[in-house]
């Protein structure tokens, strides 16, 4: 005869340390974690914690990180590069997330995809983990937005965009937690200069979005909480971020909150022509410390690809790699931070050669996406 099963004493289990509870939960399969998310706020927040997901079965291939390639001619299927296995795959959106042909992929962040739906004057944010989506109406009509950036947060996501072709100028921020838009007056800030960097999204770093400006080169940031624009190289700023000399172009990259580092990659030369490309890391006090330079042959190839039109250059972080891309070319030049080596990513075999421009590459981490 089996002994009577004792019930768990709530007085004991309710005092279980949070880190120990998280360790127990890390052994659950992904489907069970998705079911638990609706039981309490803490369980829901675990699905958006990169540190927790790295310990769970969610770090398997089912929740891998990919590089997603999009093109205006391809609106329902997207080539994916699996850096774990070094192969290209194809993502077909499920029936529940089918998009109209006019939908345009604007931004991505940790498993979330943000599309523009011009015909309905709205955005569509898709969550590839939960296979859910949300339609978000434009904050005003007509709405000609620029520099749209999707940022995942522990409790959801935010969408930033600039509305500079009006007077006065405005910045809009959408917060998924209360499903509302906030409008910030940016009159007096050189937004028209900033808006010329059309292919580079803002880089999220320590609560703010950082942007690069065309010549005269500078770095500006937007505080997502209070809606204030700042220039970090002001004399009264504690972090000056004085730029390296003889830059012909530059872009910023954040390491995806792995160690909260900020990198700068840029061309160095004279008269607007780059003769080399270098990588810097932001050090203490805002000083840029040179890390590496791109090997000469790789630099020549990249410059020939973008035809020295540096407006087409953009960068992003992906699993320990700093990826440098060109809007007119589907290949990726990347720097492996741990190995301190430069490489070219293999070309996508399914891409038609006639598509000569309009490429956009996005970091897609399907295991750490914000909620819809």
Automatic annotation (TrEMBL):
<keyword id="KW-0677">Repeat</keyword>
<keyword id="KW-0880">Kelch repeat</keyword>
<dbReference type="InterPro" id="IPR050796">
    <property type="entry name" value="SCF_F-box_component"/>
</dbReference>
<dbReference type="InterPro" id="IPR036047">
    <property type="entry name" value="F-box-like_dom_sf"/>
</dbReference>
<dbReference type="Pfam" id="PF12937">
    <property type="entry name" value="F-box-like"/>
</dbReference>
<dbReference type="InterPro" id="IPR001810">
    <property type="entry name" value="F-box_dom"/>
</dbReference>
<protein>
    <recommendedName>
        <fullName>F-box domain-containing protein</fullName>
    </recommendedName>
</protein>
<dbReference type="GO" id="GO:0004842">
    <property type="term" value="F:ubiquitin-protein transferase activity"/>
</dbReference>
<dbReference type="InterPro" id="IPR015915">
    <property type="entry name" value="Kelch-typ_b-propeller"/>
</dbReference>
<feature type="domain" description="F-box">
    <location>
        <begin position="10"/>
        <end position="56"/>
    </location>
</feature>
<dbReference type="GO" id="GO:0031146">
    <property type="term" value="P:SCF-dependent proteasomal ubiquitin-dependent protein catabolic process"/>
</dbReference>
<dbReference type="InterPro" id="IPR011043">
    <property type="entry name" value="Gal_Oxase/kelch_b-propeller"/>
</dbReference>
């Amino acid at each position: 005869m089996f002994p009577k099963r004792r019930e768990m004493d709530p007085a004991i289990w309710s005092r279980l340390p949070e880190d120990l509870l998280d360790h127990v939960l890390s052994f659950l399969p992904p489907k069970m974690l998705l079911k638990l998310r609706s039981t309490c706020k803490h369980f829901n927040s675990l699905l958006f914690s990169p540190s927790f997901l790295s310990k769970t079965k969610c770090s398997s291939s089912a929740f891998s990180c990919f590089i997603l390639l999009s093109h205006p001619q391809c609106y329902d299927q997207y080539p994916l590069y699996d850096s774990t296995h070094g192969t290209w795959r194809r993502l077909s959106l499920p029936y529940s997330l089918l998009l109209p042909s006019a939908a345009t992929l604007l931004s991505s962040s940790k498993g979330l995809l943000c599309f523009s739906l011009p015909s309905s004057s709205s955005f569509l944010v898709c969550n590839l983990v939960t296979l859910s989506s949300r339609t978000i109406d434009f904050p005003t009509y007509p709405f000609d937005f620029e520099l749209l950036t999707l940022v995942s947060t522990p409790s959801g996501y935010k969408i930033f965009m600039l509305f500079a072709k009006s007077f006065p100028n405005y910045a809009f921020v959408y917060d998924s937690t209360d499903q509302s838009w906030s409008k910030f007056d940016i009159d007096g800030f050189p937004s028209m200069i900033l808006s010329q960097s059309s292919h580079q999204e803002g880089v999220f770093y320590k609560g703010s979005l950082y942007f690069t400006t065309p010549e005269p080169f500078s770095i500006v940031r937007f505080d997502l909480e209070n809606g204030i624009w700042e220039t970090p190289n002001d004399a009264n700023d504690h972090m000056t971020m004085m730029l390296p000399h003889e830059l012909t172009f530059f872009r910023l990259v954040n390491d995806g909150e792995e160690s909260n580092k900020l990198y700068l990659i840029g061309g160095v030369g004279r008269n607007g022509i780059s003769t080399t490309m270098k990588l810097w890391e932001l050090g203490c006090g805002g000083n840029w410390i040179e890390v590496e330079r791109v090997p000469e042959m790789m630099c020549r190839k990249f410059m020939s690809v973008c035809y020295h039109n540096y407006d087409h250059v953009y960068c992003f972080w992906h699993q320990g790699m700093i990826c440098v891309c060109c809007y007119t070319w589907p290949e990726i030049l990347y720097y492996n931070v741990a190995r301190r080596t430069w490489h070219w990513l293999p070309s996508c075999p399914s891409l038609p050669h006639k598509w000569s421009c309009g490429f956009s590459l996005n970091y897609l981490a399907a295991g750490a996406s914000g909620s819809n």
